[in-house]
Structure formats: C-alpha cells, structure tokens
Amino acid sequence: MTTSTSLVYLIALPLAGAALLLLGGRRTDKWGHLLATALSASSFGVGLYQLSQMLGRSTEARPVSQKLFEWINVGTFNVDAGLLLDQLSICFVLLITGVGTLIHIYSISYMSHDHDRRRFFAFLNLFIAAMLLLVLGDSYLSLYVGWEGVGLASYLLIGFWNHKPAYATASKKAFVMNRVGDMGLSFAIMIAFATMGTVSFAGVAEQVENTSEAAVTGMGIMLLIAAAGKSAQFPLQAWLGDAMAGPTPVSALIHAATMVTAGVYLITRSNFVFDAAPTAQLLVVIVGAITLMFGALIGTAKDDIKKALAASTMSQIGYMILAAGLGPVGYAFAIMHLLTHGFFKAGMFLGAGSVMHGMNDEVNMRKYGALRKFMPITFVTFGLGYLAILGVPPFAGFYSKDMIIETAFNAGGAKGIILGSVTLLGAGITAFYMTRVMILTFTGTKRWDDEAHPHESPWLMWLPMAVLAIGSVSSGFLLSRGDALVNWLYPLFDHHEEHEHHLLEPIVVSGLALTMVAIGVAIAFVKYSRQEVASVAPEDVSIFTKIARQDLMQDRFNEAVFMRPGQVLTTTLVAADDAVVDGTVRGVGQIAMGSGSALRGLQNGFVRSYAVLILIGAVALVAGIWVVVQ
Fold first, then answer.
1. Statement to judge: residues 427 and 568 lie in one domain
2. Is the peptide bond before 328 cis (omega within 30 degrees of 0)?
3. How do residues 79-96 score in pLDDT, each as one tens digit?
4. Helices then strands (H, E): number in the chain?
C-alpha cells in the first residue's frame, strides 16, 4: 500500500466551499453558487488524477493511504484519523463528485430565483465533503464521522424550504429514522473494539477469523441495520418518500447517486464480516428482496412524479443489497448496478425537476400529458433513463440488473429459485410503473389547466441531463466489457467464486427478464395509453391500490408497533420516576419538614416553658443515675 498527501484535497475543497459560503453570509450571494460548483468540479478533477495514478500501479500497490493525525489514544484504544483510497472507494469518489458537479450546474439555474441559493450551495458542498469522508475513511470510526455528517447535510437539504411545515416534518422524519439506523453502526463499532481490539477495516479483516461467530454475526446484523437506515431498506424505509419535500436537485443527489447508496458501500466494504457470518449475510439477502418488492409495489400507485421515482430508488437499492448479500460473487454486481443507477436515476430526477420547472412546480402526473411536444430534450433524456432502468439492451441497466438476476437464480436450490423469481417479478413491476410515469407525463393528451405554460428548461439544466443520459446508455457496457469492474474490484473480495449451480444460463435469464419487462410495459400501455386518464385520482379503486397509495401502511405500522407503545412506555417510566425516584426525594423532604415543624413548637420564647423543660431534664437525669447506682 502506498501513501499520498493529496487525498485530503478531495474532502477539503468542498468543505472549504461550505465554510466560506456559510461564514461569508450575504456578501457571497452573487458568486457563491459558482464557487461551490468550481470546488465540486475540482474534487472531481483530483479524483480523476488519483484514478490515473492508480491505473499506472500494479494491483497490489493500487490502494493509497494517508494518515492525518493521531486521533484517539486511550489505553489500548488507539485510532488514527486516516484516509484510504482503493479500487472500491475510487468508484464512489468519482460518482459522488462527478454526478454531484452535474447537479451543482443544474442547480445554478433551477435555484436561480431562490433568495437563499447561496445557502443551498453551501449545504450541497457540505454534503459532498461528508460523503467523501464516509467512503475515504480507513476505519469504521472515520466512516462514522462522515456517516453522521451526511445525516446532518441531508437534514438541512431536505428541510431547505422549512418555512413549509410539511417540509420541516419530512426532514425531521428522515433525521430521526436515520438516527435509529445509526445506532446499529455505533453498536457494530463497539462490538469490533470489544471483541477484536480494533475498528480499522484492515484490523477487523485480520481479526475476524479469530473472533467468535456470535460476535461477528452480531456485528454484521448491526451493520445491516445501519445500512437499512441510510439506504431506506426494510424496515427503515418510510422516510424516503417524504424526503422528496426537498428541492429536486437534492433528490437527484441524495436519493439517487450518493446517500442512499452508502448502505451498499458499508456492506461491500465490510465483506469480510459478512463472509464470516452466514446468518447476517442471509438477512442481507432477505432485507434486499423484501425492499425490492416493497418499493416496486409502492411505485405502481404514486401520482407524484418524484415519489414514484423515490419508490423506484428504494426498489433498485433493494437489488443492490440483495446482490451484496450473495457473497463474493455478488459484491461487484451490486457496485455495478449502483454506478449505472447513479446515472439513469439522477438523470430522471433532474428530468422530473425540468418537468416541474415548466409546469409551475406541479408534481401530479395526472395533470401532465403530451409534454414531449413542449419539452423534447427532457423527453429524450428522461426516456433514455427509462430504457436503462427497464434493462432494455444495450442500455446500462441491462448489464447490471441482469447480472443480479442471474446471480440470484444461481444461488442454488430453493433459495435460488425464490430469489431469482423475486428479482424477475421486480423487473416486470418496474417496467409497469416506469412506463406509467412515461405515459402520464409525456404522451397522450394534455391535462393541465390554462395557468400552466410548459416549456423546455434552459441549457444549464438540460446539459447535465444530457451528460447523465449518455451515462445511462454507455456505462453498463463500459463497466461490463471484459468483466472490467469485476476484475477491478477482485482484489478486495478475497476470492471470486464461480457459480456452483447454473440453474439458468445468461441468455435464458436475459430472455426471461425481457419477457417480464415486455409484459409490464404492455399492461401499462393498455391501462394508461388506450384509456382516458382522469386528472383526479379515482377513489373507487381496489384495496391493494389504496394500501399502495399509503406506502403499504408503513407509517401506520411504525405508529402502531413503535410510536404508540413507545409513548406508553415513556409515560409509564415518567410516572414511575415521579412515584419512586421523585417520590422518595419528596418523602425525605416532607419528613424533615414535619420533624422541624414539630420541634419548632418547643422553641416558643417563654421562660416558663424552658423552666419546665429544665425540670423534666433534671428529673430524667436523676432518675437515670439512680437506676445505674441501684
């Protein structure tokens, strides 16, 4: 492993931008957005330089480390603050800074009329810096700092328009649910230190074989809980839909390309933990499979274009988590789908923002229709992302998603059949609801009122969309050509298992996947293209649709199972505290006060009373002496 003095610039540049814009105040309003964009682009440039240097070294020498300072030195607990750039983290660095810079450029125009645009860009830079620290930290403790920084920045961005109560509530919901997941990461770090004596990635990887399976399993489960919170996976997924309250560039940055993928990074980075804990690894697969279907079903009933895309994100992250749970053979495919998803989903979120820009911020797709005539560039770029997420060849999703489906089928036995079937069904449902989004938004007849004047967005908005669309077309082919990404990541995952169970060959998997996609597209086409679409969602719908509209009752479930019992528990504990703890304290005080009041009557100031007391005392004293003498 080589050392480098330049890794810190990756984080320092956007962090400096955030500090300058926040501390500079209104004096930076005129140029703050340009500075933030330039610093994000500079980080991307540093990332490209690091990649070029990495490519010029041998496989063993590619990882780069940098010690910043001695952080914690207490007894046997010694942790250095350090950075690690290897084949895995460079993928995330380029995704974060590359897509992040495009979103900065898009936001220059999208937020041009916002009075607090400078503050918005400061938060974007802060988010980029925190996310870079998350993926560059060389220990779980360093990762944890970035993890919490991302949580803070996302809270600030989701609630950016916090003058609207619903938006403020959405940001609080995301913050609280993420804190629940963060407790899992905290406990995982504690388990690592208590059982292995280290929290660095290299140290844990070395000690995991010498640690009891129970401890490793516990650590794996805690890491999964952390990943579920940050990546909106079951059962901590309820915050993602509400998080669409933030400005649309926030949705593209946080909920497509960066923050929600942090959980996938955590699991793949911790591959040595999950490979040694089969139970925890199985739970990863189960969580991914459930969330995959959960998000897909919710997406079928959403009329809000951003919430439909949010449900899609939840489902696609489910694919990645499922793949990561399939062990060494699945890690690289999870990362491949993460990278391709970063292109096409960020592009579609920006496309949704473009549509909203031309439709007076209307998000209800039932009030769109025929927008392809008025927004041709948005239609084409969004459409390329649509084809990519469906997995239509030769678009990006075809390469990454099909590999996950194939890996799922080849997991072996009943497990392989179940997982393969779930991934196939998810592909069909994805095709249905994404086709629904395309039809309701861009085709058919117009359903908007006279106040709307749809038009194409300015070039600063459509240019990033066009770049992301190019990635939606080409990224899958480039990453899979000659197993490029698999070979690139190979040294980090101990060994690359060959499939022991070839239930289905790749050509068969692709055929099945495309058949499911065709069925989903056909159903959506018949339902929404050949029938008139009501501008108001009908109330007379199936019970399934009603449940899907309410996010499969996830909020009600959380309220019934966690919030209400929590309130009862809190009320009970408060009452017990009042009765026992405070009651004891109050009782001692009351006894003291009562005794004092009783004794106070003896001090009345009358000489005759004192004489009587002296007489009584003298008599008692004489009586006592007499008893002793006798």
1. no
2. no
3. 889 999 999 999 999 999
4. 26, 3
Q: For residue 444, give the 3-state DSSP assignment.
A: coil
**Sheet containing strand 2-3, strands side by side:** 2-3, 64-74, 77-85
Same domain, 597 and 474: no
Tokens of 353: 């923002």
- Tens of pLDDT, residue by residue over 68-81, are 888 888 877 888 89
CB within 8 A of 339, min separation 6: which ones? Answer: 91, 95, 400, 475, 479, 485
CA distances from 74 to 79, 197, 202 (A): 9, 12, 20
Q: What is the H or E stretch that residue 502 is in?
A: none
- Quote the number of domains for the chain: 2
Sign of CA dihedral 366, 452, 441, 298: negative
**Nearest alpha carbon to residue 415 among 506, 325, 509, 544:** 325
Domain membership of residue 419 (yes or no) is yes
Q: What single letter denotes the amino acid at residue 578?
A: D
Computed over its alpha carbons, how large is the radius of gyration of the chain? 31
- pLDDT of 499: 45
Q: Mind listing the pLDDT tens digit for each residue in 405-451? A: 999 998 888 899 999 999 999 999 999 999 999 999 999 888 888 78
The beta strand positions in 392-431, using DSSP E, are none
For the chain, give the longest Cα–Cα distance: 122
By residue range, what is the domain housing residue 400? Answer: 280-536
pLDDT band per the 50, 70, 90 thresholds, residue 354: very high
Number of CB atoms found within 10 A of residue 60's CB: 9
What is the per-residue pLDDT across 132-187, written as a single tens digit (0 to 9) for each? Answer: 999 999 999 999 999 999 999 999 999 999 888 988 999 999 999 999 999 999 99
